[in-house]
Amino acid sequence: MTSEKSLKEPEVNPSHPSTPRASHPVTMREVAEGAGVSVATVSLVINNKKDARIGAATRKRVLDTIRELGYRPNALAKNLVSGSSRFIGLVADAIATTPFAGQIIHGAQDEAWKHGFVLLVANTEGDEPVEKDAISMMLEHKVRGILYSTWFHRPTKIPAALQETDFVLVNCFSPDSDALAVVPDEVHGGREATEILVRKGHRRIAFINATIPAPAKDGRLQGYREALESAGIAFDPHLVFDAYPDQEGGYGAVEELLKRDVTAVFCYNDRMAMGLYDGLKQRGLSIPEDMAVVGFDNQEVIAAHMRPPLSTVALPHYELGAAGVRLLLGVDEPAGSPVVKLECPPVERDSVGPNTLTAPRLP
Asked: What phi and psi, each to the nearest 5 degrees, are found at residue 309?
């Protein structure tokens, strides 16, 4: 039979190293009592006041007690005293829910960690009141600065609250200010996409552009024209036409495309290329034997798993996030323009095989 005494909790000595940690947050006063010093002395040690007259033995005793009791300093209180914190904010409109743009968060998070910072992320879904509250919360936490990001490359209006701290625009820019920004180099990307096809010997290269106004629409077209000019190929406006930038848009462009006697196509994005694949195969045409195809974005869930795998150009989302942090911390400095443009690397796969130079025609 178990005795009543054996059911009692064992008595513990709060100052003994083997004492279990308290179930409530340990206070600075408890640390002071455990170390046998004043609360003021504990505060000086926690805040690492080098000029404080505290002996090495006393400082060690306080630090040992902090570890033994599991004391955690009030980070917010320290931030208010120092005026800054080890946090970097990231406010985005829908970036956390898109299949590929979430890499911006990944890149920013990795780069922040390299420099001793933690990323605070707020996904606002484009809701202005939510955005305002998110920025206010980050300012209250004395973040080192804020990255303000959009899920696709576009001009944006800078929220007024951002002016209260350092900030960098990521994947967007402000045409009305000299705010620091980091964006994809759309012209470079359009040039790289077209050059993949030029290197295969193609001369009749169509470009299916988007119907929606955006820096990507203008930039990729400019890159396409520059690549043709560099290769000595005359620009033919009849080989450029617009379609809605999704799978249906690409599918619907097939019939008109085949009337233009082209051997290769550069699509505004990978989803458009997916629709183009469907339309060509439905007509009994093969890729790349009858038509070489290049997309844009390098959406891994699309491009790498198409048959054949799609050649494309990658948007540098991971590097956009990382570069934004480096600009915010002053590790990198913009050269000339406050808008830093990052190259879009080509990803060549099997959709651009040897060129037959025979234009497919409507069955």
From this structure: -55, 140
